[in-house]
Known about the structure:
Elements: E1 2-7, H1 13-26, E2 31-36, E3 47-50, H2 55-65, H3 67-76, E4 81-84, H4 86-91, E5 92-94, E6 106-111, E7 122-126, E8 135-139, E9 144-148, E10 153-158, E11 161-167, E12 170-173, H5 184-190
Helix pairs in contact: 1-5
Amino acid sequence: MLRAGVIAVQGDVAEHAAAIRRAADRHGESVEVEEIRTAGSVPDCDLLLMPGGESTTISRLLRDEGIDEEIRAHVADGDPLLATCAGLIVASRDAKDDRVATLDVLDVSVDRNAFGRQKDSFEAHLDITGLDEPFPAVFIRAPVIDEVGGDVEVLASVDGRPVAVQQGNVLGTSFHPELTEDSRLHGLAFFE
């Protein structure tokens, strides 16, 4: 039985937990999901997910609770992390905002809310490297990945701008894969 941790300080926690369960089932795996709000649980997790929300708040809560160092250690140990929307911003090396204490586990620079405000939210069917069919991506106040390091693979782009990237065991998206019934991105991050 795999243990999946969903960082639950903010964001679509229940939706990500459901997506991880669907992806595990699709891949013939058993998974137990834990919502993580305090330090001490991350070291017991086989896979980890950091949802969206508000990046300045998420980074502050991770630091205040001591979860930030546990996430860094999780990634350094080679265990998988899926970071979505604000989670991507926090996972990055540079959020271009001094209020965000980034984890620097994904060698990208991110421009917060670059796709626009809430009213500018949109959906797009994306061709994502590693998936056979287009993925229904939901963008809500989405960040833009404006610079990628040499070890980062761009998996998908919108209008020439990266929106899904992978560096080793860390997969980051500008969009919210948990807001659809399609769990293939969670499968790609954790089971393939």
